[in-house]
Design goal:
Strand order of the largest sheet: 13-16-15-14-17-18
Shape: elongated
Strand content: 25-35%
Helix content: 25-40%
Distance between the termini: 52 Å
Radius of gyration: 27 Å
Order of helices and strands: EEEEHHEEEEEEHEEHHHHEHEEEEEH
Structural class: alpha+beta
Number of helices: 9
Largest sheet: 6 strands, antiparallel
Number of strands: 18
């Protein structure tokens, strides 16, 4: 049996599994799958799908739509970053789940000031981490027959330290957090190359899967740099300026849109969450020519968060898109 990711036929006995063309954790539909060998399916899930799925802006879309992974785990949103608390610049972990939000200072700070008879420690941070730091210091001092004292000069044992910690000032804060978000361009290219390979195989069959165009995509999805993930004449998020006009028609609210447009060569188009898009020729483009779609094509629409799949031909999809644009304009 042939595996699109391996690019080869396997002997009888090699296990094959279902592969979502759009990863399930991103809202992929069970009705949109192909069959691939299990080993490479598992491997590429971690090497190609996960880095894209875990990018902060993508994870935020998953969180707000409640899109669970294949194991049923609900996504969380990590708003951690750098903040200013009580005049100190600190790293904070700020995690939001469906039912709760939790703010923690990720890296406690310890300020040590020399005194005539030792050191004065000021510890600032998450209460649990502060407790562990001070308990460790008390244990270390006790082993050396030395003492820990509070602000009043009283000798502390473990019970005394617990009392100090319980009375310590704790502020409930909701800080502003500066979070730096970067898009990993090679990871984005690998992800869209994999999806283009799967969609091309689904729509065009093995005549595409065993072509030069498919070989180019297989090479890109294994690359780890800008050079080794480059696909000639392709545009993928966040660098889609060269195909903006075409891609604008595949941005549908609350939907994933992907498909294969007729042309020489055929063209894979995709837009996930109305944001992350791709325009990828599925074959070589002649010198001096630009890849241009012809009339016709097959378009898949996955409605979110229901994961309902709609299978359109290009003309029917464009009519639906125009109607959606009209309704959206009227709502505004």
């Amino acid at each position: 049996m042939y595996c699109i990711y391996c690019g080869s036929d396997h002997e009888e006995g090699v296990q094959f599994t279902d592969e979502h063309v759009v990863p399930y954790a991103l809202g992929g539909a069970d009705a949109l799958k192909i069959r691939v060998c299990r080993d490479l399916n598992n491997s590429l899930g971690g090497l190609v799908d996960k880095p894209f799925i875990e990018m902060f802006p993508v994870r935020a879309h998953r969180f707000f739509l409640g899109l669970c992974g294949t194991d049923g785990t609900e996504p969380t949103l990590d708003l951690g970053g750098e903040s200013l608390i009580q005049g100190q610049k600190v790293r904070v972990a700020y995690t939001i789940t469906k039912d709760s939000r939790e703010l923690k200072i990720a890296d406690p700070s310890v300020t040590k000031t020399p005194t005539p008879d030792g050191e004065h420690w000021t510890v600032f941070g998450d209460p649990e981490k502060v407790r562990k730091i001070l308990e460790g210091k008390l244990k270390s001092l006790s082993a050396k027959s030395k003492q820990m004292r509070n602000e009043a000069g009283e000798v502390l044992d473990s019970e005394g330290l617990a009392a100090v910690l319980s009375s310590a000032k704790r502020e409930h804060v909701n800080p502003s957090v500066v979070k730096t978000v970067t898009a990993d361009l090679p990871a984005c290219r690998r992800f869209f190359a994999k999806m283009a390979l799967a969609a091309g195989h689904l729509v065009l069959g093995e005549s595409f899967s065993k072509s030069v165009g498919a070989d180019t995509l297989r090479k890109a999805l294994r690359g780890n740099s800008l050079e080794t993930t480059e696909i000639p004449r392709a545009h993928t998020w966040p660098q889609t300026g060269g195909s903006e006009q075409v891609l604008s028609a595949f941005r549908m609210k609350d939907s994933h849109i992907l498909g294969v447009l007729h042309g020489e060569p055929p063209i894979f188009v995709a837009c996930l969450f109305e944001t992350y898009d791709a325009f990828i020729p599925l074959g070589p483009v002649g010198t001096g020519r630009s890849p241009r779609p012809a009339q016709g094509g097959r378009i898949f629409q996955i409605e979110l968060p229901s994961r309902r799949l709609r299978d359109h031909d290009l003309s029917d999809y464009l009519l639906a898109w125009l109607e959606a644009q009209r309704k959206r304009k009227n709502e505004v």
